[in-house]
Design brief:
Protein name: acetolactate synthase
Keywords: Amino-acid biosynthesis, Branched-chain amino acid biosynthesis, FAD, Flavoprotein, Magnesium, Metal-binding, Thiamine pyrophosphate, Transferase
CATH class of the largest domain: Alpha Beta
Strand order of the largest sheet: 3-2-4-5-7-6
CATH topology of the largest domain: Rossmann fold
Radius of gyration: 24 Å
Number of helices: 23
EC number: 2.2.1.6
Distance between the termini: 73 Å
Family: Belongs to the TPP enzyme family.
Shape: globular
Structural class: alpha/beta
Catalytic activity: 2 pyruvate + H(+) = (2S)-2-acetolactate + CO2
């Protein structure tokens, strides 16, 4: 059967199970958009190529399946670099297809030409420039394989316009043969036994669960391990929901803006069981002072992460779920043979920290609207399995702190790259992937202004997400740093609460919109928003600009120097 390269590309995507593509057409990719008309694949027309990438990320976060985005050459390709880098940092499986000028004119500075493969090489697991239409099925198969195996991540296929037009003899490869790409599948029995032995002697152990738990679909295995041993669990920003927040063994989020107990438990531990976590600087604080008395068991699918920041006592390269399942067997066997240390004294310390340093704020009845109060009301009035997509900054930290994530794959955020503008398009992608779920975008006014135009996409495609703007009229996290570390010299952080008018802007984009200024209006407005299911909803919450995120570990400081912030007894 003869197909054009473009037809072969679309057919290959169909055979890989692609249900939806987020994209925006242009000259170089036009040949591929033509057969898309006759395809079973749903195409969602974005308003900016960055939105296509973040929507694909949100889809992948929520479903575990690779997100697919397709854009044209030149500026379109450069616009999607940010989502590629974001996905690379957070290990999100993406397949991005970019158009390219005809192969015959590459290198002549043709209209909308850029070296897409060269530009994206540092922010993809791999990328391909197709030079022969006969290679398309094989390359598409390889792309999906690379994106979804080992440590997941983004890949890119660059297809020149003339290659898309040329004919090829259709085939579909039976397998993938990549001699240089061999993700680790085996688990070392010896290292599993060594890990169980370390666990059996620890008096202050902590399970340090990272995003790799979710990538490996290991949430159930993690819960089994924790409940079997009684060891407390912290979940990093990328692992929220991997272990239920309401579980007695859960300490919540550690890190620069984690809760005091999670931060301090890591610091005081004598054993860290790091599962799919990478000892990120936002978790460790000053590395030399991080968990100084702890031995380390480090499990990660990526061998490059082992020893990168902290040298482990037991290094295990492997899929988190498989490793944890083997660890459960080893621990069960060990528990039958000998008595493990009693963790009651350790839990007594932990409960004292939880009692003395809870997350705390005060919402006065007639006072300014606190952002934490808004998030707690959103949480309490929405279904338990609501998917929350956040932007980056103060609102991101408050959302992670105050929402209760009891289900995996319900927290969608930009962790490693910290991409402002992530929330709205990511929420759209998550809703496309999980149309049965309520999806709230929790955004800041600074973030919202970067990608709000994608609400036009949501309205046009009938994707009914809900957006809560925590509008404090500032670039809030930057303002907080300037207040605390730059002697209150507020340089270029004021945004204005009224410019733009968020309600009018949202309505112009086809949304229903509300504005909330006072605490008593929060709950009724959220209930109205949750009752609307046929179009996007935006709520402009006018929040207190003076509110800061606590706890906080100052940049470069030790976690032992954490600033707990206000406490119920009025202390600091």
């Amino acid at each position: 059967m003869k197909l054009t390269g473009a037809q072969a590309l679309i057919k290959s995507l169909e055979l890989e199970g692609t249900e939806v593509v987020f994209g925006l057409p242009g000259g170089a990719i036009l040949p591929v958009y033509d057969p898309l008309i006759d395809s079973s694949i749903r195409h969602i027309l974005v308003r900016h190529e960055q939105g296509a990438g973040h929507m694909a990320e949100g889809y992948a976060h929520a479903t575990g399946r690779p997100g697919v985005a397709m854009v044209t050459s030149g500026p379109a390709a450069t616009n999607i670099v940010t989502p590629l880098c974001d996905a690379y940092m957070d290990s999100i499986p993406l397949v991005v297809i970019t158009g390219q000028v005809p192969y015959s004119v590459i290198g002549t500075d043709a209209f909308q030409e850029c070296d897409t493969v060269g530009i994206t090489m540092p922010v993809t697991k791999h990328n391909w420039l197709i030079t022969d239409p006969a290679d398309i099925p094989e390359i598409v198969r390889e792309a999906f394989h690379v994106a979804t195996t080992g440590r997941p991540g983004p890949v890119l296929i660059d297809i020149p316009k003339d290659v898309a037009i040329e004919s090829m003899d259709w085939y579909w490869p039976d397998s993938v043969d990549l001699p240089g790409y061999k993700p680790t599948n085996k688990v070392s029995t010896k290292l599993i036994k060594d890990a169980a032995r370390l666990m059996s002697t620890a008096k202050k152990p902590v399970i340090y669960a990272g995003g790799g738990i979710l990538k490996a679909r290991a949430a159930e295995a993690l819960r089994e391990l924790a409940e079997m041993t009684g060891i407390p669990v912290v979940t990093t920003l990328m692992a929220r929901g991997a272990f239920p927040d309401r579980h007695d063994l859960c300490l919540g989020m550690p890190g620069m803006h984690g809760n005091y107990t999670a931060i301090t438990a890591l610091q005081e531990a004598d054993l860290l069981i790091a599962l799919g976590s990478r000892f990120d600087d936002r978790v460790t604080g000053k590395v030399d002072a991080f968990a100084p008395n702890a031995k380390i068991i480090h499990v990660d699918i990526d061998p490059a992460e082992i020893g990168k920041v902290r040298r482990p006592d037991v290094p295990i390269v492997g899929d988190c779920r498989r490793v944890i399942e083997e660890l459960v067997k080893a621990v069960r066997s060990d528990l039958e043979k000998r008595h493990w240390p009693d963790l009651i004294p350790w839990w007594s310390e932990i409960r004292t920290w939880q009692r003395d340093f809870p997350l705390y704020y005060e919402q006065e009845e007639d006072g300014p609207l606190k952002p934490q109060f808004v998030i707690e009301k959103l949480r309490d009035l929405s279904p338990d399995d609501t998917i929350v997509a956040s932007g980056v900054g103060q609102h991101q930290m408050w959302a992670s702190q105050h929402w209760k994530f009891d289900y995996p794959y319900t927290w969608v955020n930009s962790g490693g790259l910290g991409t402002m503008g992530f929330s709205v398009p990511a929420a759209i992608g998550a809703k496309v992937g999980r149309p049965d779920r309520t999806v709230w975008s929790i955004d800041g006014d600074g973030c919202f202004q970067m990608t709000a135009q994608e609400l036009v996409t949501a309205s046009a495609e009938q994707i009914p997400i809900k957006v809560a703007i925590l509008n404090n009229a500032y670039l809030g996290m930057v303002r907080q740093w300037q207040e605390m570390f730059y002697e209150e010299r507020y340089s270029e952080v004021y945004l204005s609460p009224d410019l733009p008018d968020y309600v009018k802007w949202a309505e112009a984009m086809g949304c229903i919109a509300f504005r909330v200024d006072s605490p008593e209006d929060v709950a009724p407005t959220i209930e109205k928003a949750n009752a609307i299911t046929d179009r996007p909803v935006v709520i402009d919450f006018r929040t207190d600009y003076r509110e800061k995120v606590f706890p906080m570990v100052p940049a470069g400081a030790s976690n032992s120097d954490v600033l707990p912030g206000p406490t119920p007894n009025g202390g600091k």
